[in-house]
Design a protein that fits this description.
It contains 17 helices and 14 strands. The protein has 451 residues and is an alpha/beta fold. It has 2 domains: 153 residues, Rossmann fold, CATH 3.40.50; 226 residues, pyruvate-formate lyase- activating enzyme, CATH 3.80.30. The chain has a 6-stranded parallel sheet, with helices on both faces. A 6-stranded parallel sheet has the order 7-10-11-12-13-14. About 1% of the residues have low confidence. The chain binds cobalamin (B12) and iron/sulfur cluster. Iron/sulfur cluster binds next to loops.
């Protein structure tokens, strides 16, 4: 068979006023085009486990969600998307099926809404794809009719035995950043979290050697790659994290990752991260006010407990030359319309290099979604295309949706002025320069003492 892998990799915001503000991805204003060209790591893993006898092609949907013509020469098309583009994926499947092509879908949205997805696709795969996908391919090859497949019937994917994703299927010029996973899941349980914690509970680290093996393969294809770790929370295990960094150093790459604030407590880890090429960490601080953090992490109240360390942690991390992208969610239950000024004041005083603001988003399958549903606070229950992190689809508790929307515009207008961005960057670089100077003078005085 010829099998097509179709990635829906768009950046989506429905609110036209926000788009006019140039806010396709707050905090990533200049990063948005770069980020939008990330490949689908999920599909590259599926390609890697597909039986060798098949011909494979990896393609991206166009910006408007339409599919490349080459897919029409395939026998089976596997689509991967998140919630925001699910309706675009359904439309693609309809067109392909009308030409007799078998379609399959998996990923975060299809995994929590399998029956909805089954109305539009032949095969729907719930959960992680690596163990189940070869069986789906085999079934399609033998003409089996479509169904919903549950990956847990094939056991939990052992991340210590993952193959190298088929990076070789990517056309070189389109991707300036490539994703690699070092771990899956996160030990915390934020009630709004819609990332891989929805596919499998539990935090699983990959063997460091395998991560190095994958990056070495990327380097074979692309000489100076920038790597994005597609993890939920990379440095939960500090000892393993240090080993990862030690082995990354000789590869001389630059990388970005998502992690939690606890890295600030481990200077040795920060030193190794910097030496290994870490350029930025994205950290979900969520709120500059403590009351809003109470209980949002449902397991150990981790975020509320870390709150008092926020400012110092940003400075500590940035001192090592690792920039912090501080992320805030607007519209948490304790937030009133003072939150916009509170975020602004926090950012102006703590000065993270980058800042990302998004609105609270009830993604399907999350505890937040269920809670808001019970409280009759979902305003657009099935408008999955509003699941963008920027389009409001619920009733905030202590302000109106309109206040939240205008507060977002106003805060974005203040945070992303050239002046404000420059202030944060200057603070980062001047701190680095003074760190370098003080290290140099320490070295010199050590030399004097040694002489
Ligand atoms: C990289 C990334 C992107 C890339 C995606 C590139 C791509 N084509 O995949 C870009 C920058 C384009 C992107 C865009 C968006 N993203 Co994004 N992104 C991520 C990120 C950082 C990593 C995802 C990843 O690579 N995971 C690793 C792979 C291996 O896992 P996977 O894709 O789930 O695949 C596995 C299974 O799901 C399954 N599977 C997946 N697809 C298929 C298909 C078949 C046929 C089968 C059998 C199995 C299968 O098998 C795979 C292997 O086990 C996550 C955050 C995170 N830390 O996870 C956010 C995240 C996924 N993004 C999110 C959001 C909100 C968005 C945007 C809406 C942002 C915006 N405003 O535009 C858009 C939505 C685009 C869309 N298609 O709907 C949310 C999604 C929530 C949700 N449930 O919808 C997340 C969780 C971040 C968050 N803060 O909540 N994103
Ligand atoms: S810390 Fe981040 S990745 Fe972990 S559960 Fe919370 S939101 Fe999800």
């Amino acid at each position: 068979m010829k099998i097509g892998f179709l990635a829906m990799s768009g950046i989506r915001v429905r609110d036209t006023a926000l788009l006019e503000l140039g806010l396709t991805l707050p905090g990533f204003v200049e990063r948005s085009q770069v980020v939008a060209s990330l490949p689908s790591l999920g599909l590259l893993y599926l390609a890697a486990v597909t039986p060798e006898s098949h011909e494979l092609v990896y393609l991206e949907a166009d910006q408007d969600g339409s599919e490349p013509q080459e897919l029409y020469s395939c026998d089976l098309v596997a689509v991967s998307t998140f919630s925001a583009q699910i309706y675009e994926a359904y439309a693609v499947s309809k067109r392909l099926r009308s030409k007799g092509i078998v379609t399959a879908i998996g990923g975060l949205h299809a995994s929590v809404r399998p029956h909805e997805a089954k109305e539009h696709f032949d095969h729907v795969i719930v959960g992680e794809g690596e163990y189940i996908w070869p069986h789906v391919v085999e079934a399609v090859n033998h003409g089996a009719s479509g169904k919903i497949w549950y990956s847990n019937q094939f056991g939990v994917v052992d991340v210590a035995k993952l193959p190298i994703p088929r990076y070789d299927l990517l056309s070189d010029d389109r991707y300036n950043r490539i994703t690699v996973q070092t771990s899956r899941g996160c030990p915390w349980r934020c009630d709004f979290c819609a990332s891989s914690v929805m596919l499998h509970r539990g935090y699983r680290k990959r063997p460091v050697e395998d991560v190095i093996r994958d990056i070495t393969e990327i380097k074979r294809i692309k000489s100076r790659p920038f790597i994005e770790f597609a993890d939920d929370n990379t440095f939960v295990d500090k000892r393993w994290g240090k080993e990862l960094c030690r082995q990354l150093i000789p590869l001389k790459i630059k990388w970005f990752t998502e992690t939690d604030i606890s890295i600030a407590e481990d200077p040795a880890l920060l030193q190794l991260m910097a030496a290994a090429g870490c350029r930025q960490v994205l950290i979900g601080l969520e709120s500059p006010t403590n009351d809003a953090l109470e209980g949002i992490e449902q397991k150990a109240n981790f975020k509320a407990k870390q709150f008092h360390k926020y400012r110092e942690a940003i400075q500590t991390i940035q001192q090592y030359g690792i920039s912090v992208n501080a992320c805030f969610i607007l519209g948490l239950d304790e937030h009133t319309n003072r939150i916009f000024d509170e975020v602004y004041e926090f950012v102006e005083s703590a000065l993270p290099y980058d800042v990302q603001i998004t609105v609270l988003t009830p993604f399907p399958g999350t505890p937040l979604y269920e809670r808001l549903k019970q409280e009759s606070r979902l305003t657009h229950p099935y408008a999955w295309d509003r699941c963008t992190l920027f389009d409001i689809n619920y009733k905030p508790k202590r302000m109106s949706a309109a206040e939240l929307q205008y507060g977002l515009y106003r805060l974005a207008g203040n945070l992303y002025t050239a002046e404000s961005v420059q202030k944060r960057r200057n603070a980062f670089f001047s701190r680095l320069r003074s760190e370098a100077k003080s290290q140099l003078s320490t070295l010199k005085s050590q030399e004097v003492l040694a002489a």
